[in-house]
Amino acid sequence: MTDRHTLERLSEEYRTGIPDDLREARSFTWYLDTLYDDPRVARNAHQRVADMFDHYGTQYDEADGLVEYALAAEDPLHDGENIFYGREIHEAIHEFVNKVKSGARGLGPEKRIKLLLGPVGSGKSHFDFLTRRYFEAYTREDAGRMYTFRWTDLCSVIDDQDPGDDTVRSPMNQDPLVLLPKEQRTAVIEDLNEILDAPYTLRNDQHLDPASEFYMDELLAHYDDNLEAVLENHIEVIRLVASENRRECIETFEPKDKKNQDETELTGDTNYAKLAVYGESDPRAFDYAGAFCNANRGLFSGEELLKLQREFLYDFLHASQEGTIKPKNNPRIDIDQVIVGRTNMPEYREKTGDEKMEAFNDRTKRIDYPYVLEYESESKIYQKMLQNADVPNVHVEPHTLEMAGLFGVLTRLEEPTDETVDLLEKAKVYNGELEDEEVDRRKLREDAEESADIGEGMEGVSARFIGDEIAEAIMDATHRDRSYLSPLSVFDHFEANLGGHGSIAADDLDRYERLLDTVREEYRERAIEDVRHALAYDVDELRRQGEKYMDHVMAYIDDATVDDELTGRETEPDETFLRAVEEQLDIPSDRKDDFRQEVSNWVSRRAREGRDFDPQDNDRLRRALERKLWEDKKHNINFSALVSATDLDEEERGAWVDALVDRGYSEDGAAEVLEYAGAAVARSEMEDGAD
């Protein structure tokens, strides 16, 4: 039994998770000294968010020129619960971060809305959600710390100040540097940039918010323009931690019915409780509760942004381009935030076709966030779904999630323009199953981008639909007292529910049903391979055959000899044996040298990495050797027993079931596969024998 979580232990764990200075008030002088020690404290929102992505770790894929950010690839804060899969997704995240980093350098994107465009269920909302969670965590760490200020002892100077407002926090959570007049602030920032070790320079041209401007003017007048006296006597610097729940430095905004939405939700409104105290035109009577106000210094997240009415989107023009907002009957207010919007395809097409939206469209940086296009990566989404849920005691059979992923991917791919490659082969190329020497993966992607309406992967069946059907199939299995989930049952749920799903257009149904038939046939081939394994597979023999193949390949490449296994004499490489293996992959004789060099290079790379040779680690070589073993052993198999259950010896059947169990099947699932694919294997071999 694990140690109990006592209240004392829980309290201590909480205390260690918050900044040490969260409740501590500091002087402006302290803050100025802190900036000279660590200039990064004065970063703007784009700079802080950019550094956040690097802070949690990166990995560079040189082949694809792609940076994978651990925030999304590993999710270290949540033990991997929110990992994102698929090259396309990490490309989108890479592009998003590049836009933020460009904005951090003042290259232009800081004045644009980062618009995540993608189909429903592609994960763009979840990525936005995760970014907000990490920003909260980052600002709690020393590396991401930031500060704001509050005005104190105001009633001692300002005669009409409400006693309830004797201490007033910066309503926009502004950086304390903004308290310095422009000329003096510029001098400080120039000093900081000289000692800053970063790919960007610090900049801050903001004005104080109107309420703070009022307090500053009143206090400077009282102290005869002695700025030091104002800052020492009436300013406290406090730690600022982002919190979406408290609406501090993070704000989400979503469209509502036109009649129930007002621009004041974005820019703030009059504080009617203070109106009677201060009067109508007094800046102290303004309520800085608008979404842009709350997001200052951090992240603004616009959900389904393009569903907003056109007139409502005008507020985003100055917010993005000028970094200001204009509340009704109030002066402009400077803002500093990363504005992120999300939208689905129909709304995007509608707004981009609207000439009156030209100004808004010009202020957006579109980032395509497509569906995953590698079906093994797609299957990991479903694995994660099952890992994060309370799944009944149902065994997921081999190929189930991969075939579900394959169906989803096939619906999303553009048809190849190369007539020598069909859609299924293209999916396998994207999945890394075929080498670039066979099919040019890069050209397939380039052709698809040219032929797609917006981009490949921006249409098709969502992972959400597939995940829902897997969940239904699991529950159906429990109701029927089935202890396993097989691809066949998932296919049945797909077929039954495709037509009733709201996000699937009726025009696509026929094509999706044909693609489902393609996936059924692909699974049938894999099931047949598994049955062949059960009948003839031998790990030790596979390794021996693999070692023999490599010995002869290396001798062939080096124009050398090999030792005969029986006599020990030196002989020429066995070309008959080599071709017997290679022909299992339909490799023609004029391509044999390419294949042999490929596997030779693979073995050499493993040797340099200190890894032993194992033919099972090379998919193509493994498949070839397995098929060769089948050809060698199938003559000793009782195929009639597979066709007729009455001819099947229980001991023989048990051995086959056990072999399938070793490959990851449950006993009931193994029995289903034997029934589904065993007869097909037997008939095929018996027909070949008759010929």
UniProtKB/TrEMBL annotation:
Question: Which InterPro entries does this entry report, sorted A to Z?
Answer: Prk_AAA (IPR013153), PrkA_C (IPR010650)
Which Pfam families does its entry note?
AAA_PrkA (PF08298), PrkA (PF06798)
Q: Which UniProt keywords apply?
A: Kinase, Transferase
Annotated GO molecular function terms are:
protein kinase activity
- Going by the entry's taxonomy, the superkingdom of the source organism is recorded as Archaea
Q: Domain PrkA AAA spans what residues? A: 26-420
> Which named protein is this?
Serine protein kinase PrkA
Q: Which organism is it from?
A: Halonotius pteroides
Instruction: Please spell out the taxonomic lineage of the organism that makes this protein.
Output: Archaea, Methanobacteriati, Methanobacteriota, Stenosarchaea group, Halobacteria
